[in-house]
Amino acid sequence: MELIATAANGFMDLFRAGAATFTSWVTGIIPLLVIMMTAVNSLIKLIGEERVNGVAQRATQNIITRYTVLPVLAVLFLGNPMCYTFGNFVEQKYKPAYYDAAVSFVHPVTGLFPHANGGELFVYMGIAAGITTLGLPLGDLAVRYFIVGVVVILLRGIVTEKIYLYMKRREEKRT
Question: Which positions, given as ranges, span the membrane (predicted)?
Answer without folding.
Answer: 22-47, 68-90, 145-165
